[in-house]
Design a protein that fits this description.
By secondary structure, the protein is α+β, with helices and mostly antiparallel strands. It has one domain: Gcn5-related N-acetyltransferase (GNAT) (Aminopeptidase), CATH 3.40.630. Helix content is 30%, strand content 33%. Helix 1 packs antiparallel against helix 3. It starts with a strand and ends in a 16-residue tail after the last strand. The relative contact order is 0.15. The mean pLDDT is 93. The structure holds coenzyme A (COA).
Length: 166
């Protein structure tokens, strides 16, 4: 797929088999990206990611050639999913996060999700823009925002299906 001049594709990653890959990805992020992703200054990224992976999320890996450049996760909570994602610092601001959130939303609602939500820091302008673009309701949640997507407000026209990803 050609997007903003970069060839990339997405595939599911396995929480067990690909765990080390996901940990390395997160360890490669800047402190600022870690803070935005985890909503705090994480001292032990490895332990935190290991603990998250133990709950067996759906993991979406975005590759450019052989490089893992973005990772999104979806954690199932009853009939809803909490999503979170990160794009490698040097690839941020090129539309990859917006594209990946669209794919994740489409995939999760296709899987029968009633609601999808995400948390983000109050200064996360990019994530708030992405959320509003897809029709998410942005709610104050103390020192963060909670964004809720449901089938009534969702706007996913033209977003591709993930049915053919590996
Ligand atoms: C937040 C994040 C996922 C967004 O992905 P991205 O690829 O960098 O963002 P995009 O290029 O898709 O841009 C998304 C929107 O922000 C806008 N944007 C891009 N760079 C921007 C900047 N520096 N300042 C303000 N807005 C910006 C884009 O124009 C776009 O809005 P639009 O569609 O209305 O034009 C990514 O920056 C990231 O990984 N950040 C660290 C981890 C994080 O915050 N995760 C989210 C927690 S759930």
């Amino acid at each position: 797929m050609n997007h903003i001049g970069i060839m990339f594709n997405v595939r599911y990653l396995d929480p067990l088999r690909d765990g080390e890959l996901v940990i390395s990805f997160y360890k490669s992020l800047s402190r600022q990206s870690i803070r935005s992703r985890f909503l705090c200054m994480m001292n032990d990224v490895e332990e935190c990611v290991k603990s998250l992976l133990s709950s067996k999320p759906i993991i979406y890996g975005v590759y450019s050639n052989d490089e893992l450049i973005a990772v999104g996760e979806a954690y199932r909570v009853n009939n809803a999913y909490e999503i979170a994602l990160a794009v490698k610092d040097e690839y941020q601001g090129r539309g990859i996060g917006k594209w990946l959130v669209g794919l994740m939303l489409k995939d999760l609602f296709n899987r029968g999700a009633v609601r999808v939500y995400a948390y983000m820091s109050l200064d996360n302008i990019k994530m708030v823009r992405i959320s509003k673009y897809y029709g998410g309701k942005v709610l104050f949640n103390g020192d963060s925002y909670k964004v809720v997507f449901d089938s009534v407000n969702l706007r996913l026209e033209g977003i591709q299906q993930l049915s053919n990803i590996a």
